[in-house]
Design goal:
The complex is a heterodimer of chains A (474) and B (426). Helix content of chain A is 22%, strand content 39%. In chain A, helix 1 packs across helix 2. In chain A, strands 1, 2, 3, 4, 5, 6, 7 and 8 form an 8-stranded mixed sheet that branches. Chain A has a 6-stranded mixed sheet with strand order 12-11-10-15-22-21. Chain A has a 5-stranded mixed beta barrel with strand order 9-16-17-19-23. Chain A has 10 helices and 23 strands. Chain B is an alpha+beta fold. Chain B is built from 9 helices and 23 strands. In chain B, strand 15 and strand 16 form a beta hairpin. In chain B, helix 1 crosses helix 2. Chain B is globular, with a radius of gyration of 25 Å. The chains are: A alpha+beta (474), B alpha+beta (426). Strand 2 of chain A pairs parallel with strand 3 of chain B.
């Protein structure tokens, strides 16, 4: 069935068009992104239950205007009459210009965006709508998972089951464009806290996709091994720091794609001369077997959409092919400044925030090897699994990935020794050039959020196959 | 709109309710070098509603939280509240009493956010730059927030405050090498002296990063923190003293029982939560329940004295006079920073992202810049990482007597610790 487009946005469409029209008498370019995103979150632990809005719920508007080389924006969520809104927007933005003139601030002059005629209405397919399952059933099923988990081992002190479902509706209006999209996604995670004497550890598993409450069934089946995985952490050692042969699970491959590489080719960083990748376009930066794609169209995940928050259609960009860096990704303003086409990667945390170049799906393509072959090829190294976090470094191409565990491999076999936690550091081209094997199947996970520095949180997904490479572990 | 929401709630089946109305007006400026990339303005109002439904025997108090969107009609408001009440009946959390009060309180900020933004821009324009050290880009956010908390038991408090953020990227060049350092400052209003000092110091260490060599593999070398990343070490302690963590049995602390049975050879930890810290971005007079925030000692010489938290978890743990806390002060140690800095040590001034797990106390971070201090001199290092565990390092951790404020934390200026693993580049 289709995810029906927001009745609210349909009801205000005419008013928004009128607002854009009226503002266009004062500005040389005007657009409006209207959002209506709603959903619910359910959190259940052995001691607490919570039902609340999904964290990313929003209903509001952001106007973008352009005049004399400068882009300005105004975000609001109370839709007043058009005349009042036009006056307020002009007065408030002009008040800012007054102080900027007093401070003698120059503008980073930019041309006006193209506003090509385009009309689009897309309601994406979903198996079940969020409202098809009752709150009672969701809460009961999550409780059942937790109860079952608490009974599995006396070392389990807490378990947390969390699930969110959200219906995204966005409408982009300019003088020549009217774009509407509607889709549903869900994400869930299941965490277990274990304790033995003074040692406390936690592990978790994530689930996500362009789906509705059917994600519950995935949780019910997928939560069984989390207890064993958490208990394993109670007996882990610290890794002896050094450089090792590593095999990354698809989740970790994705983290590397996203953090170590992906942020480095966000081309708003090219505009600011903050990206080392700018000097490497057309050059070899990875082993010849590496191919990487990025775009809202290159996978079907929580990060997929039809058009971005600036009204640019989504894309599937080949960033790396045969180890050569071909291009990065760009929001509309960065693309304009660099003289290239935008790639549909202009995203906002919400209507309240500025749009930046942001990733969507960042994915290593698969190869021909099996995991068994990869393990057998290693004299001493680690199979790395469990994504915790990462941090970008576009200027220097450094890597920081925090991982849950590493399984020791010696003489082509898993030894049973597990090290935890693990920090993977290094230099991006060194790691990418060391990739020597890749499994066939690719997995994409959309359970995370991506920040720009420590703010502007947006949905992102990443993934890849199992990869064999060299990495510095600590 | 607020009156409409209250009216619907008063005639609903909810046992109790709480509404938090937050209006935010912001001014935002984005610069590439010192040229304006974009200017933004925002005015939004959010109505966050929580409905509570008590079981007949008052053993449980279920709740559901949601936002009533601006421009909602009365029918839409009623539909949302009814849905919330329906959901709340399946939430079987232990009963607790909401805060009650009959006094209406209003505290207003007098600052003009546009003037505050103007101050920030002016400060950034006056930072001394050279061809070797300069500002690459910066973003300024100034928010004027107006918050009103109302509940069905008579609480009605209103207060306003300004919070700001400055994000800056500093470039430094030496010979053919150019690097960048990223800074993010959250504060109340513009503190010119603090910003200028921080950014000028960042520029100076940026030049050092250009000439840094690979971090050597080091064994048994003490690690020293002299910057804001150390706040995360102490955030571990504020996390394990939270009532929520204690109630969930994730924190194993017991009041008046030492945090560790091991001998403390270094300085003990003393932390207090305070209602007010000058120019903090978190100077809220009331917490999210409408409780007046009061100062509280959380840990004293390594012994937990109080947990802190919202009304729900405070009642579950039978805490008296408790509230959420947002500002924290960590006491200094016995020695001055000069006395603490005995050679050799590795001083890490810049991480990619220094992380401390709030549950386990494990920490790690990739080194972007560190200084290795030895008798032979000071060598800047870059690359590699450090890793450790608060459980292990707290026995031999020393804190300077001098302290410094970083937004909502006051912490010792120097923190020195043993038993930290240093991964170098061979």
């Amino acid at each position: 069935m289709k995810a029906p487009f927001s009745a609210y946005l349909l009801s205000v469409e005419k008013q928004v068009k009128e607002l854009v029209q009226n503002l266009s008498y004062h500005y040389d370019y005007v657009s409006c992104l209207a959002t209506d995103c709603y959903g619910d979150s359910f959190s259940v632990s052995s001691r607490m239950t919570s039902v609340s809005d999904y964290d990313g719920n929003e209903r509001g508007f952001v106007i973008r205007v352009y005049k004399d080389g400068l882009y300005s924006e105004y975000s609001f969520n109370e839709l007043k009459d058009v005349e009042t809104l036009v006056r307020e927007i002009i007065v408030k933005l002009d008040a800012q210009l007054v102080i900027l003139r007093a401070l003698k601030v120059d503008f980073f002059k930019t041309n006006a965006l193209d506003d090509e005629v385009l009309s689009l209405f897309v309601e994406k397919e979903v198996k079940e709508l969020p409202e098809s399952v009752s709150v009672e059933e969701i809460v009961n099923r999550l409780h059942a998972i937790c109860k079952q988990t608490m009974q599995k081992d006396e070392r389990v002190v807490e378990c947390m089951a969390h699930m969110s479902m959200v219906h995204i509706n966005k409408m982009f209006i300019s003088l020549n464009r009217c774009l509407k999209q509607s889709y549903v996604y869900s994400e869930a995670n299941f965490g277990v806290v274990v304790r033995e004497e003074q040692t406390t550890k936690m592990d978790y598993k994530g689930f996500s996709g362009l789906k509705g409450p059917e994600i519950l069934e995935e949780m019910e089946h997928g939560s069984n091994d989390v207890v064993a995985s958490a208990i394993e952490l109670l007996a882990t050692k610290r890794v002896i720091p050094g450089e090792y042969d590593i095999i990354t699970t698809p989740e970790v491959s994705g983290l590397i794609a996203h953090e170590a590489f992906g942020h480095g080719v966000e081309m708003d960083m090219f505009v600011k001369n903050r990206a080392l990748a700018k000097e490497y376009i057309g050059k070899q930066i990875a082993s010849e077997m590496v191919e990487m794609h990025e775009g809202a169209l290159c996978a079907e995940s929580t990060a997929s959409y039809v058009f971005d928050d600036e009204g640019t259609l989504a894309n599937d960009v080949t960033e790396i092919k045969q180890g050569i860096l071909h291009t990065g990704i760009a929001d509309a303003l960065s693309a304009l400044r660099l003289g290239i086409q935008p790639t549909g990667n202009g995203k906002r945390e919400s209507f309240e925030r500025k749009a930046y170049t942001r990733m969507t799906n960042t994915v290593f393509m698969g190869g021909e090897n099996t995991l068994e072959e990869m393990i057998a090829s290693i004299e001493h190294g680690y199979l790395l699994e469990g994504m915790q976090s990462g941090m970008e470094d576009p200027k220097h191409w450094g890597i920081q990935c925090m991982l849950t565990k590493g399984r020791e491999i010696k003489d082509g076999k898993l030894t049973g020794v597990v090290v935890s936690p693990v920090i993977l550091t290094g230099y991006v081209p060194d790691l990418l050039k060391s990739i020597s094997m890749a499994s066939k199947e690719v997995q994409v996970d959309g359970n995370g959020y991506c920040g720009k520095g420590y703010k502007e949180w947006v949905k992102a997904a990443d993934g890849g196959p199992y990869l064999k490479a060299k990495g510095r572990l600590g | 709109m607020l009156k409409q929401i209250i009216d619907v709630l008063e005639h609903s089946a909810a046992t109790h309710y709480q509404i938090t109305k937050t209006t935010t007006k912001s001014h935002e400026f984005f610069f590439i070098r010192h040229d304006l990339d974009m200017n933004r303005c925002k005015e939004v109002t959010h109505y966050q509603v929580t409905v509570y439904v008590a079981s007949e025997d008052k053993q449980y108090l279920g709740d559901a939280s949601f936002e009533v969107m601006a421009n909602s009609t009365k029918e839409e408001i009623k539909a949302q509240i009814d849905k919330g009440i329906y959901s709340a009946q399946f939430v079987k959390n232990p009963y607790f009493e909401l805060l009650d009060s009959s006094e209406q309180v209003e505290i207003r900020s007098l600052e003009n956010p546009l003037v505050v933004a103007q101050d920030f821009i002016h400060v950034m324009q006056t930072i001394e730059e050279t061809e070797e050290m300069y500002i690459n880009s910066y973003e300024i956010f100034v928010n004027e927030n107006d918050k009103q908390i109302i509940n069905s038991k008579g609480v009605n408090v209103t207060y306003s405050y300004i919070d700001s953020m400055v994000e800056a990227v500093i470039n430094a060049k030496k010979n053919d090498t150019e690097i960048e350092l990223y800074r993010n400052y959250r504060i109340g209003t513009c503190n010119k002296e603090m910003l200028v000092e921080e950014l000028q110091q960042t520029m100076r260490i940026g030049v050092d990063k250009c000439i840094a060599t690979n971090t050597q593999p080091l064994q048994d070398v003490d690690v020293v923190f002299t910057g804001s990343d150390a706040t995360r070490l102490f955030a571990y302690y504020t996390s394990i003293t939270s009532a929520k963590m204690k109630y969930q049995q994730i924190s194993t602390l017991e009041l008046d029982q030492p945090m560790t049975t091991e001998e403390i050879k270094g300085d003990t930890i003393t932390i207090k939560g305070v209602a007010y810290l000058e120019n903090s971005s978190c100077n809220y007079p009331y917490d999210a329940d409408g409780t007046l925030i009061q100062d509280k000692v959380l840990i004293e010489n390594h012994i937990p004295k109080n947990f802190w938290g919202n009304r729900r978890f405070s009642q579950y743990l039978q805490l008296e006079n408790a509230s959420s806390l947002y500002n924290f002060v960590v006491a200094g140690g016995k020695q001055s920073k000069k006395e603490l800095l005995q050679l050799p040590y590795l001083e890490v001034v810049e991480f990619s992202d220094f992380q401390v797990d709030s549950m386990t106390g494990e920490f790690a971070g990739e080194i972007r810049l560190a200084y290795y201090h030895t008798k032979e001199g000071i060598q800047p290092f870059s690359g590699g990482s450090i890793a450790g565990s608060m459980q292990q390092v707290q026995q031999e951790m020393w804190l300077s007597s001098e302290v410094k404020q970083y937004d909502h934390y006051v912490i010792p200026e120097v923190v020195r610790m043993k038993h930290v693993s240093i991964t170098g580049i061979e």
